[in-house]
Amino acid sequence: xxxxxxxxxxxxxxxxxxxxxxxxxxxxxxxxxxxxxxxxxxxxxxxxxxxxxxxxxxxxxxxxxxxxxxxxxxxxxxxxxxxxxxxxxxxxxxxxxxxxxxxxxxxxxxxxxxxxxxxxxxxxxxxxxxxxxxxxxxxxxxxxxxxxxxxxxxxxxx
Length: 158
What we know:
Blueprint lengths: L5 H10 L4 H12 L9 E6 L2 E6 L14 H19 L5 E12 L7 E6 L9 E12 L4 E13 L3
Antiparallel strand pairs: 1-2, 2-4, 3-6, 4-5, 5-6
Helix pairs in contact: 1-2
């Protein structure tokens, strides 16, 4: 694998600070403000893996008092995007979300934990669709939501 991405370097630096995960999460939401609507806490970030927690609160509820479907999509896209950014070699490639297929398996009435994980490719192609599965669990560790997010990865022009 190539050298760690700048995002992973920032994550690692934050880990040595008090409330480093919180600080990193705030920085991510400053850079991409829409994610701030769910107030995520990034709990782990490595090449091929990202996890985050979102607290159950009224601001992200739907009309029946459970976590809104789009809040679930939001945390899935956040984890997938951070993981891909930490994984794709930034010197040679770039990426952008291309599509998302979701499955709502149960209502979420607790905090939620999202996990995006892939096997890191041994070689990055000129152009490829990278499928990123994301799983979301409730506080009882029950799978309540899944997303398959397609990221379009292309080589940078030299």
